[in-house]
Amino acid sequence: IAHAGGAIDGHTYTNSLEALNLNYARGYRLFELDIIKTADNIYVAAHDWQGWKNETGFTGKLPPTRDTFKQYKVRGRFTPLDLADINNWFIQHSDAILVTDKVNEPALFVPQFIDKSRLMMELFSSSAVKDALALEIKSAMPNWSIVRRMTFM
To answer: What pairs with residue 142 in β-bridges?
Structure first.
């Protein structure tokens, strides 16, 4: 799995277009992206807002709007991704699978992604796992904290 799009030029957590392209060319087909929402409720690929602020030099109020988010390059050179960009990339790479992290709203996210059969979600509550299973995505993966709370008979 290419974590946060995969490493690029020694950098991790870029969640960038360039990381997706490079790691696809390297043979990766599972791409984990950290998905969070902007101030105007648009899904974007970023690990967390403080980290994004540090990586971009943004000085405004967090979270930014989608338009503001798109204006800032990660580390000054890597292209940020909103959900429209993510969908376009996955349309162009029909053998790639998206693995989400951070987003815990399958009922909201799944209908916005282009192909639920190519969507795996790490989820952080039992109810989110149940919701994702009902939506018939490729895989609903409970976070380790959920697994630890499970009892097996």
So the answer is: 123
Residue in 141, 33, 41, 48 with CA at minimum distance from that of residue 89: 33
- Which of 120, 115, 144, 143 has the alpha carbon at shortest distance from 132? 120
pTM over 0.85: yes
Assess contact for 101 and 108: CB atoms under 8 A: no
Tokens of 24: 């696809």
Give the position of tokens 């994004």.
52
List all residues 6 or more positions away from 43 whose beta carbon is below 8 Å from its beta carbon. Answer: 35, 36, 37, 82, 83, 86, 103, 109, 112
Model confidence over 23-80: pLDDT tens digits? 999 999 999 999 999 999 999 999 999 999 999 999 999 999 999 999 999 999 999 9
Residue 56: alpha-carbon gap to chain centroid: 18
Query: Residue 99's beta-bridge partner residues?
Result: 32, 120
Cβ neighbours of 48 (radius 10 Å): 14
- Please give the C-alpha separations between residue 113 and each of 3, 26, 37, 82, 83, in angstroms, as whole numbers: 19, 24, 14, 11, 8
